Structure formats: C-alpha cells, structure tokens
Amino acid sequence: MEAENVAKGSFEEVYIEDGFYVLKIQNDSIDSQKVTRDIDSSFIQFHFCLKGSAKFVFNEGRYALEVTEENSLLLYNTEVDLPLNLVLQPKSWLVSIVMTIRKFHSLFSKEADYIPFLSADNKDKKYYAQERVSPAIAVILSQMMNYNLHRSIKELYIKGKVYELISLYFNKSEDADVEQCPFLVDEDNVKRIRKAKEIMISRMTEPPTLLELSEEIGLSLKKLKEGFKQIYGDSVFSFLFDYKMEYARKMLESGKHNVNEVGLKVGYSTASHFISAFKKKYGTTPKKYLMSLANS
Q1: Which is nearest to 237 in space by CA: 112, 103, 97, 135?
Q2: How far is residue 133's CA from residue 122's CA, in Å, rounded to a whole number?
Q3: More confident residue, 174 or 252
Q4: Most-buried pick from 1, 10, 118, 120 (CB within 10 A)?
Q5: What residues have CB less than 8 Å from 121, skipping those under 6 apart?
Q6: pLDDT tens digits, residue range 9-38?
Q7: Residues 116, 117, 120, 121: is their CA dihedral positive or negative?
Q8: Contact status, residue 250 vs residue 146, Cβ threshold 8 Å
C-alpha cells in the first residue's frame, strides 16, 4: 500500500476474513492524496464517497472515473486486474469494500439470479456501475468512519456493518418499482425529488410542510410521497429526522457545541425535545453519549 500527503488524513485497512477487507481513506488536507494498492481480477470492489470526490485511474492514466460525494462505484472485471490507483481530492472521505468473487457469490448463493452481473451470461464480462448512495447507506458509512470501540471488537463491528451495507446496496427491485411508480422513469421527476431532499436539508430548522414542498418542486403530493420513498427508502420526515440526528451526533462529537446549541441548530426550540428525539434515535441521551466517547 502506498499513500502520499497523509499528514492531515488517514488510511486504515480492516481485515474481515480471507479475501475480504475494508479500506477507510480520509484526506483532510488541502492537497490531493494519491493511494495505490494491488487488487487482482479475482476481487469485486465497492467504493463509496462520503464527502468530496475521488478519481479512479486505469490503464496507466489513459482512463479515469470520478466518484463524487454521496455516490458509489462498483468495479468487477474477470479479464484484467483492477489495481487501486486513486486520487483523493482535498477534504474527501472514501470507504471501499473489496472481496473475492468467490466470497461475494457465497453471500448470494440462493439469489444469484437477482444480481445482474452474477448471471451466467455476465460471468466473464466487466461490470462498472455508478449510483447515488441512499440515506440508509450513508448512515452506515458514517458509522463505519466514526465508531468509538475497543480494538478487540472493531473487526466484528465493521464486519456487521459491511454485511448490512451490501444488503441495502442490493435491496432493489427495479422492474417492480417502475410498474408501481411509472412517473419515476422520467428523469425530470427524479431531479424534482432530489431537489425536495435538498430543500428539507437546507431548511431543517424550519422545514416546509409536504404540501408546500410539493408545490415548490412542482410535483403532486402523491408523487412526492411515492417518489421520495422509492428513491430514499423512507418518508420525507423520517428521512429528515434521521438526517438531523446524524448531523447532531457529528456536532456533539466535534466538541464545539453544547447540547442546547446542537438542539437549536437542528430545529428543536427546547433542549428537552432534542434530548427526547436523540434518545429515540440512539437509545441514549446526548450527555451520556458524550460521556461514552470520553471513556472509550
């Protein structure tokens, strides 16, 4: 493994089991960071960009794929090796899952036909796929980057999160979804739904009602509800709640804000309401959560 310019960043490789590992790469510097690692053709690769952007370079620089924030890249090619040759931009984080095809097949041995590139027709072909990261996967990725656990259980924790992540990544039934929500085939409507997500995040302290939101993005209330659930896997306000709690958790961990300040910044007018919401999400109060970090 080679990594350059890692003074303000980190690289960690977590071994899960033979032929199965996780790479956690953070570049918190103001310079680009280059990371290389040998990966042969017996492996399948999943790369998730949490923030910033990363460029994957192939064929000695003749070809490149960029993965931006909240997007993923799946790489699989049985014909040639696909070594990791990565340029991570400043202030960028990446989580990569790398496992052998044999290990990957074992996860889906009964459902292999469900995964397009596992079919007999595709077994000797290359497969590259880029797609957006769902909020549920984003939460898991954040947990994988930010956990505070004793090193003796780190691998077990990461292993559980990886299985959860892979399960959600392939939790798709595209044909059924298209039949249920034909309007989502229209790319313009997908953009409207994504705009709705951005509106809710940008105004999380005083979010619009669903009716106001539907009017602002130019979709009916029914299409907004159906489309948001399909793209993000949750209702608008359940998604916003999860986002606010994750945002609050990161603010608490930074140590720069007290509980009252964090509550106000995510839209709770009283500390008691924020504490109640935080406990509902994480099973503990913000104060106890901070204490557990200090003691870990």
Answers
A1: 135
A2: 24
A3: 252
A4: 118
A5: none
A6: 577 888 888 889 999 999 888 888 888 888
A7: positive
A8: yes
